[in-house]
Amino acid sequence: MKVDLSGKTGRFARRTLSDFSEKMLMLLADMSLEEISVQKICDICNYPRSTFYNYFDDIYDLMDYCWTVIVKDMNLDEYMKIPVKDRTEGIFSIMYDYLDGYRPQIHKILSKNSLNGRCMSSLRLFMRGQIKDIVSRCPYTKDFPLREDVMVDYYAVTVEMLLEKCFLEKIPLNKEEAVQSLRFLLGTIEKEAHRK
Question: pTM above the 0.85 mark?
Answer without folding.
Answer: no
